[in-house]
Amino acid sequence: MALWEIEPVADWDDPNWQSRPQWERVVVRANTPAFARAVARVLDTTAGSREFGDEHPRLGSGFASEKLYRVKPLADAGGFAEAGPDEILSQTRRLVSSGG
Predict the structure, then answer these.
(1) Rounded CA gap, 90 and 87, in Å?
(2) Could you read off the pLDDT of 88-98 as tens digits, one per residue?
(3) In angstroms, how far is CA 80 from the centroid of its own chain?
(4) Backbone angle region of 39, left / alpha / beta, with phi > 0 → left and psi within -120 to 50 → alpha
(5) Which of 7, 5, 3, 15 is nearest to 69 (CA)?
(6) Helix %, strand %, coil % of the chain (to 5)
(7) Which of 20, 36, 69, 98 has the fewest Cβ atoms within 10 angstroms?
(8) Which residues pair with 72 in a beta bridge?
(9) Phi, psi of 27 (to 5 degrees)
């Protein structure tokens, strides 16, 4: 099974983020880049959350957008095992400072 690195391609202030969570780096074990995106979706979708009204549209996962993230083969396995189930092996969420 292949190891994939998912990283942002959009600037942090790009309007395409539309209030979605922002991840600096995600490492996924999956057969294909498309499936790596699907596996990573759980990071930015909250189970059981319901959004009502026009002010809270369901935007879907940012990992599905090629405008937000790229998926590339992981250059250095760095201790991650290629054998195993499809899963997220590592994640780093962008820390947003609160202040100007």
Answers:
(1) 9
(2) 999 999 887 55
(3) 18
(4) alpha
(5) 7
(6) 20, 25, 55
(7) 98
(8) 5
(9) -110, 130
pLDDT band at 58 (very low <50, low <70, confident <90, very high): low
Helix (H, G, I), strand (E, B) or coil at 75: coil
Q: Which two tokens mark 62?
A: 């940012």
Residue 59 scores a pLDDT above 70: no
| Cβ proximity of 28 and 3 under 8 Å | yes
CA atoms within 13 A on the CB side of 76: 1
Give the Cα separation of 20 and 15 in Å (integer). Answer: 10
Residue extents of the structural domains in the chain? 2-93
Answer whether 0.70 is exceeded by the pTM: yes
